[in-house]
Amino acid sequence: MTDSREIDVEVGGSIGILNAEETVSESRRVFVAREKSAQKKIDRRCAVREWVAWKTFKNVLFFICLTFLIIQSLEFFRIYYTYPTTIATEITVAKDFRLPAITFCFRNTISYKDYCSYESHRCERPSNVEKFCEKHPYHCYEDTSNLTIPKKDSSTRRNTQYYLFEDKYNDDEILFQLYNYTSKKRTFVRDVENYGQHLKCYSENLHLYQSNSIPKIQEINYNTEMADQIFWKRLLPENIEPFYPPDTPQIFVAIHSPHVPLNPVVDLHPVMPERGYIIYVQLEKEEHLLPPPYQTNCKDNGPTKDAKEFNSPNSFQMCMEMCRSEYYEATIFCKSGMSMISSVPTDCKRYLEIPHLSDEQLVELEDKRFTCFQNCKQGCLKLQYKYIVKELKTEGKGF
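The structure corresponding to this sequence follows.
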């Protein structure tokens, strides 16, 4: 029978035995470490690329802004050395005075006596001659047995307008000798107190359009006590017989710039009968704008030999009126839109209800008118006048 024995054998050194889980964990740590190292390198390269791109963008943006700054600076210095950048106000004593335009407007150029002698069927005897003479003594200086006055009706207004337009029965002695109206420019303006009626006007020193004529200039005499008034004119309307009773003004006067048409609503001053007048005129403002190449965008309104009459307006206001007139002439085939009409006025009311053009054509003409307005420029010379009208009582048979 054999005995079983246990024999212990000791081997020099040590033997370590690792299980499977520990081996896997160690391998994973090594792999993660390598992966992190590679990711850091990739992140570092990406960061460098982003920095380079951002730096490049900032440099490009800087150079673009610098380029625009240099361009603007060069443009500024060009304008600075080309045009004045400061406004200098210099007050001087003028030696010459640019005379204004003086315009006289008439409702009628025929006396009531002449009218009733030619148109007796359009005149009538006052219902109460005694009261009429008390109120209007001018009509009763002579024999009143055959006294007649014009009827105040539409027929009389039409006739007087016809005489006015065609220069019929003009009082030649007064209009064309005493006031020398043959040398004045004739125009027609609206009668704001009578719808559809016009006044006939005669203007002195009127330059609404550019031409070779030169506006009048008067030398100022500082040796007189009236030097501050510069210009004055005496009116004696008693030399003109009225058409209607003298409580109705028949004559109007306007003082305005030679380059600007008068405004019949604002500028016309009535000249009443039985009074004399003295008009004192001062130049309130004379403004000079620099013509091109200065950027004042003004138009030289001085005399020129090349300009054609009625084609080149002498002021912004006249240019605007010409644009309106061209529009009305194209749409209703009637001349309108002008304050001072050089030809005999046309009744445009009968054209208004006639549809001449289509909507598309009207829109096109309106656009053309607007473009015309935009092309109007202020005159390089602007004149504003201030005047005072003083009444003087007259004696005897006065108008």
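Helices lie at 20-82, 112-118, 129-135, 154-165, 172-178, 316-331, 359-375.
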